[in-house]
Each structure stands twice: as structure tokens, then as C-alpha cells.
């Protein structure tokens, strides 16, 4: 069975990538909710995260990684550094922005940029939460 699944993943890399991103984002949302001791899991939020990962993040990251490999092929140190810099300067802000704005749209918020304005820079620079 594993051999079959691996063969299908190689045969259909795009759908495999989208499926993995959706699964990882969904699991991450559920874990985040549990870690913050929410008494009840917000399945609507989890559904929105899964839809956003499936429709946006999985696709854009798949295409981005293909582009990076074409522009800077292989694992030579210079090419790896170029890929990392491009990731941090281009796709990371795009992904973070897509998440906050996309979630606001799906939640029906009037100002879809409010959460983005509030959280973008702290998320982008990976601000550590103050200790209690």
C-alpha cells in the first residue's frame, strides 16, 4: 500500500502537495486551539484554515518551490542561500498576508485588513510571546 501511495505522490505532485499543506495547516490549527486551552474546538475556524490551505497556500507554495528550483537548482550553498533569502523576502510575507486576509474574508469581517495590520509584523519577525 505504501509503495502505491508513493507512486501516486510522484505521479500527481501538485495534488499531493495541496493535500499535505491542507492536512498540516488543519492539524496545526487544531493543535494551536488545544494548546491555548480552548474548552471547545472551533470547527468553523478549522474548516476555514483547511479551505485556505487547500485553495491558496498549497498552490502558491508548490508553484513557488518549483520556481525557486528552476532559478537556483540544486543544493550548492550559494543557491540554498538565494532560496532562503527569496523565501524570506517574497513568499513568507505573501503567505502570512494571504492567511490573515483570507481568514478575515471567510469570517465575513467588515475590515479584512484589520487583523493583518495588527498581527503581520509580529508574525513576520516571529515575535516571541512574553512569558507569564
TrEMBL record:
Localization annotation: Membrane
Domain of life where this protein originates: Eukaryota
Membrane topology: Multi-pass membrane protein
Protein name per UniProt: Mpv17-like protein
Principal location class: membrane
Sections of the chain in a coiled coil: none
Entry similarity comment: Belongs to the peroxisomal membrane protein PXMP2/4 family.
Organism field: Chiloscyllium punctatum (Brownbanded bambooshark)
UniProt keyword list: Membrane, Transmembrane, Transmembrane helix
GO process terms (BP): mitochondrial ribosome assembly
Keyword check for Chaperone: no
Any one cellular-component term (Gene Ontology): membrane
Amino acid at each position: 500500500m505504501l509503495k502505491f501511495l508513493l507512486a501516486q505522490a510522484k505521479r500527481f505532485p501538485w495534488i499531493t502537495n495541496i493535500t499535505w499543506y491542507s492536512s498540516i495547516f488543519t492539524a496545526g490549527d487544531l493543535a494551536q486551539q488545544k494548546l491555548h486551552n480552548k474548552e471547545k474546538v472551533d470547527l468553523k475556524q478549522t474548516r476555514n484554515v483547511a479551505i485556505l490551505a487547500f485553495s491558496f497556500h498549497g498552490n502558491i507554495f508548490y508553484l513557488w518551490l518549483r520556481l525557486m528550483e528552476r532559478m537556483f537548482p540544486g543544493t550548492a550553498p550559494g543557491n540554498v542561500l538565494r532560496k532562503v533569502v527569496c523565501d524570506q523576502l517574497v513568499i513568507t510575507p505573501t503567505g502570512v498576508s494571504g492567511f490573515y486576509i483570507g481568514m478575515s474574508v471567510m469570517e465575513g469581517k467588515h475590515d479584512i485588513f484589520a487583523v493583518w495590520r495588527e498581527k503581520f509584523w509580529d508574525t513576520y519577525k516571529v515575535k516571541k510571546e512574553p512569558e507569564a
